[in-house]
Every structure is written in structure tokens, then in C-alpha cells.
Design a protein that fits this description.
Elements: H1 3-17, H2 24-36, H3 45-86, H4 91-116, H5 121-138, H6 140-155, E1 163-166, E2 169-176, E3 180-184, E4 190-194, H7 195-199, E5 204-205, E6 211-220, H8 226-238, E7 250-256, E8 261-270, H9 274-291, E9 309-310, E10 313-314
Antiparallel strand pairs: 1-2, 1-5, 2-3, 3-4, 6-8, 7-8, 9-10
Helix pairs in contact: 1-3, 2-3, 3-4, 8-9
């Protein structure tokens, strides 16, 4: 039996159950009012039969509407997911927006079906609002992480593979989720950081720029010649192949400390070779200073012991 034939038979039965008189509309309204107000004792068999056919027709219509809504929501969700994937949008946000479209459509259709059955959706919306407030208060920390994760995914201060310093931790970004960020430290530890702890603090993206500067601080003895020291440090920085010619390397005289004259050697290199360049620069500075006979001072302590006096004279 086809669906159209079934609906036609149900409609004919509902029409036959209702009184054919001119007050049929008022009779139907009175039956519905008694049913909605739970006045079941005032309803006769004919009214119960009309109520059954009335809600039967609406139930069939609602089932058809929900089936169509389920299909359309799945279709639109797939379209959103494919469109965002094609433009290489973030995978986490892609799945979030696709699910948001689907469940948003299903929620609107469900509210429409409730309204079709005579349920006041305004009070239902108030209940949803109160429930949402209670859930929000219970999960305020989780929602804070969710909001921070959304901001991180939208503004993208770092991406997977970047070396960052966040929440007093330094490492390589391994995963970025809506609630947490996974960072692998340089000693191969996986640290899971809540996004609210990251977005509300200073974020340092160490590997953001393709060119970085390596710095080596060194102190020499006061007896060393300033010009000779500068020449030795310049020879050291020029001997490193990883150092870029532009921007030009620098040798700066920093300050005159308590026991040494402090210098800083600054050299620019590629981001991926920063560690190797700094190690090579440290070695070259030490070798050049040793070759030039320039001393690198270290803290020393001279202790002078006076002989104790015996009867006013020192003991020899």
C-alpha cells in the first residue's frame, strides 16, 4: 500500500468520525481542548477516535519531515566539510562547523515539530536557556578552553611543527585541538596544555621567522687590547660557514664588569641551523682568543692568613 493511499484512508476515517453538522469545527476544537487540558472524563468514544486520527496524521507528517531533515542535514554537512577541506581549512574547525550545521538544522526542525503538535516552544526555549546556563556554569573551565582553542585556531599564532615557548614550557607543537595543545619537549616528553593557559598568557613563537640571530657572550681580561680582541672575535665569526653575510655579523663591546671586559658576538643564520651555528661560534671564539693570547678570566679568591701574635709579637 502506497503512502498517499494510506494518508487518504486516514483522512477519510477522520472525516467520518467527526459530526457532519455545521458545528464540526467547534466540536473538533472542544475535543482538542479537553485533551490538552487533561479533561479525559468529558471525552466520549467519538472524540477519542478523532484525537487518534488527528495525531496519527500529524505523527506521519512529522516522521516524514524528520526523515527529510535528517537527509538534508547530512547532505549539507558533507557539503560544508568538503568545501572547507578543499580550501585547506583547519581540520578541527572543519569537523566542528560540519557538525554544527547538521545539528542546528535538526534542532530547528524538532522545535517546528513540537510547535506543530501544539507544544509552546517559547517555554521550551526558556528551559533550554536555563539548562544551557547551568551547563555553562558547570563547565566554565572547559568552555574557557574551548573558546581559547577557537581563537588559537582562527588567529593561528603558531602551527604544528613550530617551536614555541608557552605556559613556561618550550617545545615543538605536536597537536592543536579545541581544548588542549600538545607540545613535545626537546627531551622527548609530551606535555598537554589547556588552551586557556596559553591564550591568556604570552606566546613566543621561536621558529616563526626564517632567519635567527645567534649570540655568544664572552669576557676578556682587562689587560687584553681592545682592538686586538675585536679583531679576534671578528675572525671567529667570519670563519663559520653557517653564518649569513646579510644581515652583517656584529661584535659589540657590552660593558666593563668587575673582573672582565664583556663582549657579545652576534651572527645571523637560518632558523633550522641556529643550534649548530651557535655551537660552532662558541668554539671559534675560544680558539681565536687562545690563539691571540687573550685571557678569559674566571672568578678567583685570594686568601691572606696573618700569623697570630704571642705576647705582642708575631710568631716566626
Amino acid at each position: 500500500m502506497s503512502l498517499s493511499l494510506l494518508l487518504a484512508q486516514v483522512a477519510d476515517a477522520a472525516q467520518a468520525a467527526a459530526p457532519p453538522a455545521s458545528d464540526a469545527v467547534s466540536w473538533q476544537r472542544r475535543a482538542l481542548d479537553d485533551f490538552y487540558s487533561f479533561q479525559f472524563t468529558r471525552m466520549d468514544a467519538q472524540q477519542w477516535q478523532y484525537i487518534a486520527y488527528y495525531f496519527g496524521l500529524r505523527a506521519i507528517f512529522v516522521l516524514i519531515l524528520l526523515t527529510i531533515a535528517w537527509t538534508i542535514s547530512s547532505w549539507l554537512s558533507s557539503i560544508v566539510r568538503l568545501a572547507l577541506t578543499r580550501i585547506r581549512f583547519d581540520q578541527t574547525l572543519t569537523l566542528f562547523f560540519a557538525r554544527l550545521v547538521r545539528w542546528g538544522i535538526l534542532l530547528m526542525v524538532a522545535l517546528a515539530c513540537l510547535s506543530y503538535f501544539g507544544v509552546e516552544t517559547t517555554s521550551f526555549a526558556a528551559v533550554i536557556g536555563a539548562l544551557g546556563l547551568a551547563i555553562g556554569l558547570a563547565f566554565q573551565g572547559t568552555l574557557s578552553n574551548f573558546a581559547a582553542g577557537g581563537m588559537l585556531l582562527v588567529f593561528r599564532p603558531y602551527k604544528i611543527g613550530d617551536v614555541v615557548n608557552v605556559a613556561n614550557l618550550t617545545g615543538v607543537v605536536a597537536e592543536i585541538d579545541l581544548f588542549t595543545t600538545a607540545v613535545d619537549t626537546f627531551d622527548n616528553r609530551r606535555i598537554i596544555i589547556p588552551n586557556s593557559s596559553i591564550y591568556g598568557a604570552t606566546i613566543e613563537n621561536i621558529s616563526y621567522h626564517p632567519v635567527r640571530r645567534a649570540e655568544v657572550n664572552v669576557g676578556v681580561a682587562y689587560s687584553a687590547d681592545v682592538d686586538q680582541t675585536r679583531s679576534a672575535l671578528e675572525r671567529a665569526v667570519r670563519s663559520i660557514e653557517l653564518v649569513l653575510p646579510e644581515p652583517k655579523p656584529e661584535v659589540a663591546l657590552l660593558d666593563l664588569a668587575a673582573s672582565s671586559v664583556n663582549w657579545q658576538v652576534r651572527a645571523w643564520c637560518r632558523r633550522e641551523s641556529l643550534g649548530d651555528a651557535k655551537q660552532a661560534l662558541l668554539r671559534a671564539v675560544k680558539l681565536e682568543l687562545d690563539g691571540a693570547g687573550i685571557e678569559i678570566p674566571f672568578p678567583q679568591l685570594d686568601v691572606h692568613i696573618d700569623s697570630p701574635a704571642v705576647e705582642g709579637r708575631p710568631v716566626t
